[in-house]
Each structure stands twice: as structure tokens, then as C-alpha cells.
Amino acid sequence: MRKLRDAALWSVLFALGMLVVSWAAWDRAGAAGENLAWYISRAAGLSAYAILWLNMALGLVIRQGAHTGALPRWRLYDLHQFTAPVALGLLTLHVLALLWDRYVGFTLPQVLIPMLSIYRPLAVALGIVALYLLLLITLSSYLERRLGHKTWRVLHYLSIPAYLLSLYHSVLSGTDSGAFWAVGMYLASFMILVYLANRRFRFLSDRKCNSKLAGGI
User: Fold this and answer.
1) Contact between 52 and 133 (Cβ < 8 Å)
2) Distant-in-sequence, close-in-space partners of 147: CB < 8 Å, separation ≥ 6
3) Are the C-beta atoms of residues 137 and 162 closer than 8 Å to each other?
4) How far apart, in whole angstroms, are the C-alpha atoms of residue 31 and residue 22?
5) Residue boundaries of the structural domains of the chain
6) Which of 38, 59, 66, 144 is the most buried (most CB within 10 A)?
7) pLDDT digits (tens, 9 = 90+) for 161-186
8) What are the b/e assignments for 72-108, b being 16+ CB within 10 Å?
């Protein structure tokens, strides 16, 4: 529970700190910065996607028995756990900045309840569901002992749809999705995870085969 409280505290403080800085910058910018909230939300959303991708990649590397180089596996595991609440903090900033945006004029129900948004409702709904899944997965990681390993593992597999939904949300709702750099980032990040997932499944398959062979000797 202490780790959970610490992670939640740092995530909230990070998001609040970013919001205070953003609000001060927006207030000083005046009329020239009327779209600053939109830019902040986009930047936070892209950063959250990058951190979520890193979290997924670390999880796949740790669990497939791959060589981790100079960093010991326990450090990668800690980084894997740390990146989840950081992503949640960035997503909090992403959502709250939308409430400050003067162009679209999101309301709180529209950013919390799927299909209520007037702006690209399907894309926003995918992002909302991904947010809730990520929150559930992160909480379950800190409550593994209470939930039991089997329940935790089932919940942890929700990270796959959570990532895919976040990717679809980013592509469908992002105003930069058509840019060359954005297409390259989304495609490269997705393909890297596909490669790591393939290695993970091959590792599990080989280990299962080796266990059967050892049992038959």
C-alpha cells in the first residue's frame, strides 16, 4: 500500500504542477495564447502515449528472459512500475487541459463518459476506455498480493487492449496524426511492440517444449 500511495502522490503532484505552470503561461499569453490549453493537451497526450509504449516494451522485455544489458532486471521492473503512474499523471493533464480549452468547450461528462463528446465521439470514447483500463491495471499491480497472482495476471493482460485503444485514439483524434513524424512514430512504436510480443510468445513456447522434453526423459 505504501508503494501505491507514493505512486499516486507523485502522479497527482506531477499533474498538478504541470497544470499550475500551464495555467500561469496561458494567463500571461492572453489572447495570443487562447489555444494554449489545446496544445498542452496534445503534448500531454503524446507524452502519455510514449510513456505507455515504454511501459509495454519494458514489460515484454522483462518477462521474456531477454538480456537486459547493463541494467539489472529489478531496475527495469521498477521502471516498468514507475512509468504506469507517470502515464496516468500525463493523462490527467491531457484530460483537464481539455476542460480549459475554449475552442471545443469540453464538459466534464464528455471527457469521462464514452460517446458524449461532440468532438470525434468514437475517437474520444476509445481514449476514455483506455484511460479506465490503464487505471485498473495500475491499481492491480500495487494490489497484487491482495488480489492474488491469477487475478492480477488476468487484469494485466488488459494492457494489450489498453495500448491498442490508446493508439487508435491517438490516430483518430490527434490533429497531427497525418504528419510524417506522427505516422512514423505510431508505426514504429507499434511494430516494435509486435516484435517484442512475438519474442515473448516464442520464449514461452520454447520453455513449454523444453519442460515437456525434460519431463519425458
Assistant:
1) no
2) 140, 155
3) yes
4) 15
5) 2-216
6) 59
7) 999 999 999 999 877 888 888 899 99
8) eeeebeeebbbbbbbbbbbbbbbbbbbebbeeeebee
